[in-house]
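Researcher: Structure for this, please.
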Amino acid sequence: MSLTLVLVVIAVALVFEFINGFHDTANAIATVIGTKVLTPRQAIILATFTNLIGALVGGAVAQTVAGGLIDSRLAPAASSSQMLICALLGAILWNLLTWYLGLPSSSSHALVGGLCGAAVAAASGNWQAVIWAKAPAAGRHWWDGGGVLYKVVLPMITSPICGLIFAFVCMAALYFILHNWRPATVNRLFGKLQLFSAAYMGFGHGTNDAQKTMGIIALALVAATKTGAFAHLPAWLQFLDTPEAANPKDQTIASWIKVLCALTMAAGTAAGGWRIIKTLGHKMVKLQPVNGFAAETVAATVLLATAELGMPVSTTHVITSAIMGVGAARRLNAIKWSLVERIVWAWILTLPATAAVGYVLMRAVQWLGWAN
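Model: Predicted structure, token format:
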């Protein structure tokens, strides 16, 4: 593996992070725009700032991506750069397709799917190259387990369910508390409170989404270090040398990786994502400031909790289900279920579709002789 190839991986990873910024940040700010509390420009500035802060906090999700999903003994280190490029390209293509269609799909699951598919191809079709499930120790909860099942698939199911139920309960409680209030008073109060919930949502998005790309870059650097690609680095590039941790779950993420990914996501955030904002903020359910406050507060709390557990969950799934929850608390027909059906299909297809693309791209690279 050459230094040039490693730098290509980092560049492609940053392209993914930038696209993630304008693709998924739309989820974080759609509600505050839909309720007209902030203009699109103001919301993007707020999200850019809070995403940057959130991305610099923590690292459990990055450690999961860097060492908890792929068995490096079966996915050869010599071709890991090509594998990561194929995984990233698969995720980028899916993100651009769903962005074009205006569907709020998951960048997180697109990346995980692409990574799993490319890893299986790199291991000559050996499905054990992916750590599918690592059961939790005796007496521990299921979320303490490892691998794709415990860190991706189960959270993919439970996090939107939590978003839906908690948002429904939160909104129902607010309706009960505020039922004698004048609508103008409610809108005025929650118009102010939504500034805080929107900032909280942006912070939660940063703590989870930016971490995935950090993990990918760390994977590339560890593999390059193992193959000796950094053996003769000049002094000013010694920071690239990244030894592998004895326990993959403890793989450290260098500060420069965190800063680089955080700034890239912030730049992508500033680019905006108007198609998805339109879907979430206007098309799915009509939102008032109190609805936006409930949806954002619940979604951000779920994101922070899962980030703490090292689960790369989908910001998209959580905020979308939270919006459904607040809409259902008003009345079930307040939600445009035909649109919800399209969104759910995008969710279901993301992992297998990106895994297939990652697998095909890696096979093509091998066929061309660019990897083992």
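Researcher: Any notable elements?
Model: The mean pLDDT is 84. The chain has one domain: 3-366.
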